[in-house]
Amino acid sequence: MSSSRRYGFFVLALYLLIYIFALAGRPLFVPDESRYGEIPREMIANGDFVSPRLDGLRYFEKPVLGYWIHAASIRVLGQNRFALRLPSALAVGLSGLIIFFLLRLSGAGREDESLPWLGAAVFFTTFEVMAVGTFTVLDSLLAFFLTACIAAFFLATEAAAGSSRERVFLVLAGIACGLAFLTKGFLALAVPVAAIGPYLLWEKRPRDLLRMAWLPFLVAVLVALPWSLAIHAREPDFWHYFFWVEHVKRFIARDAQHGEPFWFYLAAAPLLFLPWSFVLPAALVGVRRQLAGTGVRPRLLRFALCWFVGPFVFFSAAHGKLLTYILPCFPPFALLLSLSLVRDRSERRIFSLGSYGLGALFPFSA
Fold first, then answer.
1. What is the chain's mean pLDDT, rounded?
2. Which of 45, 172, 184, 354 could bridge to 279 as Cys pair (CB 3.0-4.6 Å)?
3. Predicted model pTM
4. Can you name the residues that pair with 320 across neighbouring β-strands?
5. Any alpha helices (H) in the chain, and if so which ranges?
6. Looking at residue 248, what DSSP letter applies?
7. At residue 349, does pLDDT exceed 70?
8. Kind and range of the H or E run holding 58
């Protein structure tokens, strides 16, 4: 068996063990899992797949795609905990697959066949990804669509300007952006801009901000438009509430729901990024050494850094915060870690120190 195939079997087994086998093993978490299970159940019961309802009352906090996906899972697998949690677990698996193919298709892992598998494994084993990916919430689905959008856009930037390959990846980015909008709203526009804009400016390609943005934006609008018009016709006050209360007020209002200080995510990061927090010093050394290089690997590294920092600052600037909101920052974290680790002797020493700290943690977590 080839090394690549062995890596693949290991990562697949890791994913199944963490995300699939234990989905039905614990009671539903109240109120989130019961809420995101009841809304699609009511959709199936009353046949209304346009206007979400909870206990018969209109529920305007989210768009509709996440409920459709959970309703489809219920229709296929029945009303049970496994069916409710499976979409989140599959979203994590597909996000890991995107990380794998981004490292492979970009050519960044050409000299090391283990690198794409390492990126997926880092993503699968990071604490917040594991914690959120086995629960019935919409954050993993949103992170998957955003990962697909941003990764496709990067591959478009690597293609020749105006080529059919560039257009294909831009259309894919637009489709994913539209699906992200139908999952959780206007974050689908803000997060890609916060990631992609700084990268194109860093690469001294400011004109591409407009040249490349119009096609995915148009495709995203076309994907989101049918339901957007349908909900407006059915519930004329939906967009006013959803835009002003769920987005603008949550971002800027002092009395926003789940209000936290700017440094909230920064303080929580060492816990959320476990167990990989212990090897971050080695990763930072590798990032610093490679950023100024040329070729696809440094470009992907710079892109991943913008992808991580831009959305992280954006979510930190919002007054309303939950730990699950920064889930879109974890795919670029996996990219950064896998691209930067263990490149020379000094990094290996730092990595070894972090590994000792990681090993010391296991007796306390067992």
1. 88
2. 354
3. 0.91
4. 259
5. 3-15, 32-46, 65-77, 81-105, 115-125, 127-133, 139-158, 164-184, 187-202, 208-211, 214-234, 238-240, 250-252, 264-272, 280-290, 296-317, 330-340, 345-365
6. I
7. no
8. strand 57-58
